[in-house]
Structures are given as C-alpha cells and as structure tokens.
Design goal:
The protein has 907 residues and is of the alpha/beta class. The chain is built from 31 helices and 22 strands. Strand 5, helix 15 and strand 6 form a beta-alpha-beta unit. Helix 19 crosses helix 28. The longest helix has 32 residues.
Length: 907
C-alpha cells in the first residue's frame, strides 16, 4: 500500500495550479501584469515515495501529460566525480549543470509529450556541442579553429537532409560523370559552403549567441572567435559561473521561444502546461543548491519569464531555515497564495530568495491513523491533474481544417488563375500575357479569326509558314528601325499600319486564299527594307505594324479602335495602308480611321465611292469606272477584229450581296461603259459562295449562273465579283461547255485566281481573261526596286515569282508605302524641322501629282485631275489571258508607266 502523506492533497493541488498555463498571458494569472514562477522546494524526510507519486501524477495528467523529468542530483554528482576527477571543483559543478540540462533537453524534445509539443533546443544544442568538442585544458594547436569550423559545418549539414544528401559520399559517386562539371562542383561544394557561411550570419542561434550577456561575447566580436573560446574554456581561463549561466540561459531561451505566443505559431498555443524539472536531493555537497541558485540568478538578470517549474527536494537538515521560512500546507493562506501576495507588493528588484517557495512535507500517516482513509481519498482525487485543452483554432482538427482550407483556397486560386489565363489566352489568340502582341490581338469566336495589331511577328494564328516568315521579317526590320533611330537622332521614326482583310483562316478556310495578304506584306517589307538601307542623314526610318481586320474587313472598326489607342502611346504612327476589298465593312473602317485622324493609302480597293467617305482617304489602284472603261474598250477591239467575240452583247455576272461595294459599283460601271460602245448588256446576279445558307432566297447560285453562260456562246461574259465565286462559275462552265466556252473577261479580283498555279491549273480545258492592276513582269531578275529587294528578303520565293506575284498585290502595297515616303520627303524639303504628324503627312499626300507623281512598280501614281486628289489618274490596267491552266499572258496594257506607251485601243 502506498504511503499517505498528511495534507498531500493540498500539495498536489498546488502542483496542478503551478503547471497549468493560463489561456492568456503567463503565470501567475492571479497577479495581473506580473509574470514569474517560484522555485518550489519540498522540505522533509522520507520523500522518495512522494516523488514517485508526483511523477505519476504529472505523467497521467489529462488531457495530456505534463512534460517533466526527475533527476537525482546526488547521483549525477557522483557520476561526474567518478568520471571527471581531473576537473577542478568549479568545473565539476559546470559539468553537473551541463548533464542536468542535457537530460532535461532530451526529455522535453522527445515525443512522449506529443509530437506537436516537442521543444527544439537549437541554442543550447549549439552551446553544448561546442563545450563537448574538447575535454582537455591543453593549449589547442594552430588548426584548432579550422577543425572547429569544419566539424561545425558537418554538423549543420547532417541536421539538414538536403545538404546532408549533397555531401554524402554516395551522392558524389552517383553524380560523377552524369551531370555537367559546373553543376557537380556547385551542388556538392559551392552551394553547401555558401549556405553555411550565410547561416552563420543569419541563423537565429548564431545571432543569439553573440547578443546574450554571458562570457562577454563581444570579445573578440565574431562567432568564430566566441565559439573557439567555448571549445577550450579551461585553457582560456573562462569563468565557470559564466559558462553555467550561458548554458542555462541558452536552455531557457529555447523554452521561451517554444512557448512564445504568436498568431502564426500554433504549437505554442497547444502548450497548455509548463515543463517541470524535479531536482531530487539537492544539497551543498552535490552542488545542487548552487545549480538552483544559478537558475534563479539567470531569471533575475535576464528579466524574462521562463516556462519552467523547478521543484527541489531536500531533508530538514539540509534546508537553510535561517534564510528562508518553510511554509506549512496546513496554513489558512496556502503557500502559493502567500507568495503571490509577496509578488504583488514586490518592486522590480527582487532578491534571489524571493523566488524560493519552501514547503514542508509531513511524514506519511501511520497505519490505523483515524484520518488515513479520508486523506487517501482526498490525495487520490487531487492527484488527477488536469491541464487546459488547446484552443479550438490550435487543435489538430483545426490545423487539418486550416490546411485543407488553405489547400482548397490555393487550389481555387490556382484554378481561377489557370481559368483566367486560359480565357485570356483564348481571347488573345493563344498568346501569354507576357507576349508583346497579346494586348493588341483578340479572338473572334463567331468566325474563328484572330484580329488586331501585331508588331512583333505574330502571324494571327495562321499556319502558313510563308506568311509567318514574312511577318517575322517585318518584325526584325522594326527592331532595326528602332536601333537606327536611337543611334542617329537626326533620322525620324515613322510608323505605318498595314491593315489586311485576311491574315488568319476563318471557319477553316483554305490557306490558299490567304496568299494575296502575304504578297501585300512582302511588298510592304520590301519598301521598308529599301528605306532602312537609305544613307541620308535625315531620311526617316520606317516601322510597319501588321493588322488583321478579318475576312471581308468585318472587324475593321474594332482594329481602328486598337490603332487609335496605340496612337496615344506611340506618336510616330502617321498613316494606314492596305484596306483590302471594297465592302461596306471597308467603308465603316474608313470612317473609324478618319475619326482617329489617320490618313489612308489603300492598295487594292477600287469601288468608285470609297473616296467620298473621307477626305483622308487615298488609293493607289484605279477606280471601277476606269476598269469598266478599259474592259469596254478591249471588248470593242475584239469585236472589231473579230476575235472570239461574235456580237455586241455582254452578260454581266455580279454578286447579290449589297454589302459588296466592289461588285455593286463595278457592274454598274460596266453596264454604262459597254452601252456607250453599243453593246447590249444583260445583268444577272448570283448568290456568292460565302453567303449564309438560306440567304438571298430565289436568287441562283454561282454554279447555276455558270451553266447559263453556255446558252449563248457568241456573246461576251463579264464577271464583276470575287475570285472564289469566279471559280464556282468556271467549274460549272467546264462541266457544261468546257470545249467551246464563250469569251469570259473577269474583273481585277480574278487576278487572285490567276496568281495561284494550283487553283488555276484545275481548269485545264478553259480559256479566260481578266484585268490586272500591274504588268506581267514579276521576276527576281527584274531590275525594278520591288523584285530586286524581294530577291534579298524572300529568296525562296524566286522560283515561283512568275505565278505568285502576277496579281500585283506586292507591287500595289510597295507603291502605297512609296506614296507616304514621297509625301514625307516633300515635308522634309519644304518644311524642315516640322514634326511628322498624321495631319502634316495627309496634307503632303496631296502634293503627289504632276512633276511630283510617283513612278511606281504598279504604274504612275498621280493624284491630280478630276478625281479630286484621292485616286490616281490614268492608272495602269493590263489584260491577262489564261489558256489551259497555264501562265497568264499579257494581252493589252492601258495607263501611264514611266516612258512606256499604252495600246491604241485604250480609252
């Protein structure tokens, strides 16, 4: 039967009260704004069984055990005296202290109190490791400091798995010869050494060691010097008391850090019980009393709260009754209540004796004592220690919930970010945010086209390798232009925006239909290259921004808005070229660019009314009215000579799409011109192949119109529509009367078919003719400015130039840029120093006439005459003939071209 001590229930209640940590602040909770715990001294004989009961009570506390360790100081002193008899008495006391602290650290860092309540003794571990490095008082050799740092480095590497793995011999063997030599040296040697040097400066334990007050760490002032003193304290004649206090302070600082309450330190909130150090049998003989006094002095000198309850035990004879009164557990005011009253009244300077709370432990009750049973019951109830439960937010469930919530938030954030980035990429044609062209391009789901402005080589999603290379050439030349401008402050930077109607393939359309857009860009690139190669000190350097307005120019207004925003950040933008196809969408685009204040020089549009919509609009191609006049004059010549056309009758095929201004105005002009030549005109509309299903109900399609062509083979057929519709009509003609087709003459848009050898060769049995805005002279060997430059930029295109560039898109685009450069040169000659603005350039465009007309690759461009200064007068138009799918052959030429002469039949 266990002994029952009188008033033991009050002792256990006192212990339970001392080890329980308040929810807020630190002990004692009964005294606000005063922190501190007494050193509880148990005074009495026959305490061995009581110590065991206290050990069990601490270990069985609910809901979790109290971290504790019971150390027999006399036994520890005996071990030191036996093993380290070579030490002086003061150093033996230091060794006792070290061993006691090591045992306490091992207990508090173990998992017996729970994995989440382990204490990491970084500071004390470092101090203890340095003290254990040498065990002699002999003078260290000259390499002692290097050996110390080397062993310390190895210790740090072993404590960190990644660095330990890198420094392991197996890793060195496994990586040798399998990774680059620089990675091998950096990973195995440089990186670990760099980390160790940095950690010696930034590591918390290293910085603390140089700031703590004991052993004068400022001498010599470096960690290496101070650590070297710790490895040889006896040889260096260090003060043993200072060494003891340094160890105790390091030990207590690790406890303070572990218990320090911070919102982000959940483990500290889970520590609801203080650590207990039970020093059994302390006396002057075993140096235990001096050890306890060192703890108290460190507490007084640092002024910090220590989350450690020290309990000592000694006999009545070993206690100093003269210095400290021993309190009885039976007093009305409990010993702890009495100590708290002293704490309330104590000032800031409290003596060492203030922290002691000696309590007398009565002898066990003898068997048969009348109070034995009652005391046993009270003691048993008081031994059931209870400590506070961790707050809900610091519990494991809350931690798991918080981790799950954080992971969910991270996953949601990542998912939202990925979704946002996916939507961004989808809305910006698959480009990442960091792409230079991403902000100025957009994806149109309705037609599956990428439209916008790109100046860094983006091909608008096209898979045409030739188009991609062309845009990259322009982007490279843009970079060169910017470098030339920076290198020479006298050469102004001028930017033109080239707007194309189709740089991406809408609705899965064949890439063959995109070739003409590429040809225009190659003409623009050639003009840019020639300007950049100029040697004049004040010649402007030219930058080109490629823009895609979508098929049929349907997104031209949106692109114009993008260009307007670009003008706010880039004042070098002075004009626009391109503007393919004469449609209503083109008219709206012209209006939007006019509102932006940008002059325009269009390449292929030829509708009669385009220049009526804006005073800023110009074009280098002839108008439909001139094209119709040339067609009528050529037909009249054929009738006169009796070649192919048997009678003065013409069937005019035109598109039923009223938004197609090109077809609408061309057939009207053709009707007037042919009637003026005494031709009977029969107009017939057809539904274009690009029209939606069900549109233009009751109107025949292009295939049906082609079959009607064969009904009268004596009359002439004029086609006033788009090249894709012309193909459908030719397909029907080939099926209905392929061996004896009537005479067919197409408008200038048919030149796109004539320029494509693969599409053209499909109609091997047929012969047809079409009007073109350039001569049939495309060749890399041509001495003209255009093709000599293209030979340098696009050498791989030279074998097919005779078929690829016949339609004149490259020449027209080349001349459109040339018109701007002509106007800018006029400003530089007559208004030196004037800032090149869109308004100034527009005014100068009107000077391109008469002696200042441009002798271009597509003919002479002269904005004078009755056209009002917006369209060229007497612009070159040629007649091309295709026989059996072969190369187009020039049959006639009308218009001004240098010193050349036109055919006699021309109007």
């Amino acid at each position: 039967m266990e002994p029952v001590f009188a008033h033991a229930d009050k002792l256990f209640s006192l212990l339970n009260q001392l080890v329980r940590r308040p929810r807020k602040g630190e002990s004692p909770g009964e005294v606000p704004d005063r922190d501190g715990m007494p050193v509880l001294g148990l005074v009495g004989d026959r305490q061995d069984r009581l110590v065991e009961q206290i050990r069990r009570a601490l270990g069985e506390a609910q809901p979790r055990r109290v971290p504790h360790e019971v150390i027999d100081v006399a036994e520890c002193w005996g071990e030191v005296a036996h093993e380290r008899g070579d030490l002086a008495a003061d150093w033996q006391r230091s060794e006792v202290c070290r061993r006691v602290l090591v045992r306490l650290a091992q207990e508090y860092s173990s998992e017996r109190g729970g994995h989440d309540r382990r204490v990491r003794f970084r500071r004390f571990g470092l101090v203890n490791w340095l003290l254990e490095m040498t065990c002699t008082d002999e003078e260290p050799d000259s390499r002692h400091d290097q050996d110390m740092l080397s062993r310390l480095r190895d210790r740090e590497f072993q404590r960190r798995p990644v660095l330990g793995f890198l420094r392991a011999p197996g890793t060195e063997v496994a990586l040798q010869g399998k990774v680059p030599w620089w990675a091998y040296v950096f990973g195995l040697y440089v990186l670990p050494l760099m980390w160790f040097r940095a950690w010696r400066v930034l590591g918390g334990e290293y910085r603390w060691l140089l700031r703590q007050p004991y052993m004068a760490p400022g001498d010599p002032g470096t960690f290496a010097g101070f650590a070297l003193r710790l490895t040889q304290p006896r040889w260096g004649r260090e003060d043993p008391d200072q060494v003891v206090k340094l160890m105790i302070n390091a030990f207590l600082e690790d406890l303070r850090v572990a218990y320090r309450r911070r919102p982000w330190r959940r483990r500290a909130a889970r520590r609801t019980a203080y650590c207990v150090a039970f020093l059994k049998g302390v006396s002057d003989d075993n140096r235990g009393r001096e050890l306890v006094r060192s703890f108290v002095e460190v507490r007084r000198e640092t002024g910090a709260f220590d989350p450690l309850l020290i309990i000592t035990s000694c006999t009545e004879g070993e206690h100093d009754h003269e210095r400290m009164r021993v309190r009885s557990l039976a007093e009305e005011l409990t010993p702890y209540e009495a100590w708290c009253e002293r704490l309330r009244g104590a000032g800031r300077s409290r003596g060492a004796d203030f922290w002691y709370l000696p309590v007398r432990v009565p002898a066990p009750l003898p068997a048969g004592h009348p109070d034995l049973a009652a005391q046993s019951e009270c003691t048993s109830a008081a031994r059931r220690f209870t400590v506070g439960r961790p707050p809900v937010w610091a519990g494991r469930a809350a931690t798991a919930g918080a981790v799950a919530l954080v992971l969910a938030l991270v996953a949601a954030t990542v998912g939202a970010t990925l979704e946002r980035e996916t939507r961004w990429k989808e809305a910006h044609c698959g480009l990442e945010r960091y792409d230079a062209d991403a902000a100025t391009v957009t994806w149109r789901k309705g037609t599956k086209e990428c439209v916008g402005v790109a100046s860094h080589g983006f091909a608008f999603g096209s898979h045409d390798q030739k188009l991609t290379k062309t845009l990259q050439v322009i982007a490279d030349q843009n970079g060169r232009a910017e470098r030339l401008h920076r290198a020479s402050g006298k050469r102004p930077l001028v930017t033109l925006v080239h707007v194309s109607a189709m740089l991406s393939s809408p609705d899965g359309q064949s890439l063959k239909a995109l070739s003409y857009a590429r040809e225009q860009l190659q003409g623009v690139a050639s003009a840019q290259r020639r300007q950049l190669d100029g040697q004049g000190e004040t010649e402007p350097v030219l930058r080109i921004l490629s823009a895609n307005a979508g098929s049929g120019m349907r997104y031209g207004v949106r692109v114009a808005g993008m260009v307007r925003k670009l003008m706010e950040a880039d004042p070098t933008i002075v004009g626009v070229t391109g503007l393919d196809e004469s449609r209503e969408a083109t008219v709206r685009t012209i209006g939007a660019l006019t509102r932006a204040g940008l002059p325009m020089v269009a390449t292929t549009p030829s509708a009669d009314t385009l220049d009526d919509h804006s005073p800023l609009y110009h074009q280098v191609s002839p108008q439909n009215v001139r094209e119709a006049a040339v067609a009528a004059a050529y037909a009249d010549e054929l009738v006169t000579t009796g070649e192919k056309v048997g009678k003065r009758e013409v069937l005019v095929l035109y598109s039923a799409d009223r938004s197609d201004a090109y077809s609408r105005t061309l057939w009207k002009d053709v009707e007037s011109a042919f009637e003026a030549k005494d031709f009977t005109v029969t107009p017939r509309e057809f539904v274009p192949v690009s029209a939606p299903v069900g549109a233009f109900s009751g109107t025949p399609g292009a295939h049906s119109a082609g079959q009607d062509v064969c009904r009268d083979k004596e009359r002439m057929v004029f086609f006033a529509g788009r090249s894709e519709d012309f193909e459908a009509i030719l397909r029907a003609v080939d099926q209905a009367c392929g061996t004896s087709e009537p005479f067919i003459l197409g408008g200038d848009d048919v030149a796109r078919l004539g320029a494509d050898m693969e599409r053209r060769s499909y109609f091997f049995r047929l012969r047809y003719e079409f009007l073109d805005f350039t001569r049939n002279t495309a060749s890399c060997e041509n001495s003209g400015n255009l093709y000599s430059t293209m030979k340098v930029l696009f050498q791989e295109e030279c074998p097919s130039l005779a078929t690829t560039y016949l339609d004149g898109h490259a020449a027209l685009a080349f001349d459109a840029v040339g018109v701007y450069l002509k106007a800018i040169s006029y400003l530089q000659e007559n208004a030196r120093g004037m800032r090149l603005t869109p308004h100034a350039v527009w005014q100068a465009l009107g000077t391109v006439h008469g002696r200042r007309a441009l002798d271009g690759e597509s003919g002479t461009i002269d904005f004078g005459g009755e056209a009002g200064g917006h369209t060229p007068i007497d612009k070159l138009i040629s007649v091309q003939r295709v026989v059996n799918g072969g190369l187009p052959a020039q049959m006639g030429l009308c218009g001004r071209l240098g010193d050349g002469t036109q055919d006699d039949w021309c109007p």
